[in-house]
Amino acid sequence: MVGKLSKKATLLLGITEEELFENIGNYFVEFVGSFGYGDVLALLGRQLRDFLNGLDNLHEYIKFSYPRIRAPSYFCCEETETGLVLLYRSKRKGLSYYTIGQLKSVAEKLYQLDLKIKVMKEEIIADSTEVSFKLEFDNRPADKRMTALIREEARLPAVSSALLYDIFPFLIIFGENMIAQTIGRSLMQIMPDLFGKKITDFFEMVRPMIPFTYKLILSARNNVFEILAIDRNPDAEDTIHSEIVQTFVSRDK
């Protein structure tokens, strides 16, 4: 249906399909802003890079209102003072330029930035569309007060590991080898075999849509991670197969 409508619209308006979807994405930001979501968008970060890193968290928040939403996933990499590379993955197809329109509109309206976007690569993998966008914008730190804030946080008292274990009963501590060195007391009751084993043998990454590796986890520390327990005994009647949303705590070997 969307494909047929877009073809008719491009003929009527005399523009390309890419221009049509980019304009729709631009208008969508204005549309959601009229319903109060503009304030939510503005809270995602002081800079555009912070906004992009928080997009997955925003979609998790929106799920409370729209539980059937099929949200895309975003991941930033290769960041420099002149921009970054944004990896976009979605179960829906044909929305690359729609996304470009949204990003340009947010950059202009919320951050007063002239954002240039180039599609570096687009491919279909399994049932997902994966796109690499090259974003060019002024990505230099805009607020030097953050340095003072970091110094102030450095003076805060240390928190004991015992307190963290009490706060996070499903905690997992692992190193570069991905072996679970410590797990929370509740997780120990549910999955006692996890301790001392590779967590990739017990869980698969759901969000963000990136390979489940130590290096990539460290590079996406601002994201909320969602992992899914792998069904290791499908014939058992009481097999546990549940989603666990938890902040990763990592340390060196």
TrEMBL record:
Cited SUPFAM superfamilies: Ligand-binding domain in the NO signalling and Golgi transport
Domain Haem NO binding associated: 158-239
Domain called Heme NO-binding: residue spans: 3-119
InterPro entries per UniProt: H-NOX_domain_sf, Heme_NO-bd, HNOB_dom_associated, HNOB_dom_associated_sf, NO_sig/Golgi_transp_ligand-bd
Domain of life: Eukaryota
Alphabetical GO biological process terms: nitric oxide-cGMP-mediated signaling; response to oxygen levels
Keyword Transferase in record: no
GO-annotated cellular components: guanylate cyclase complex, soluble
Keywords: cGMP biosynthesis, Lyase, Nucleotide-binding
GO molecular function: guanylate cyclase activity; heme binding; nitric oxide binding; nucleotide binding; oxygen sensor activity
EC number(s) per entry: 4.6.1.2
Signal peptide: none
Keyword flag Lyase: yes
Pfam families hit by this protein: HNOB, HNOBA
PANTHER family given in the database record: GUANYLATE CYCLASE SOLUBLE SUBUNIT BETA-2, SOLUBLE GUANYLATE CYCLASE 88E
Protein name, per record: guanylate cyclase
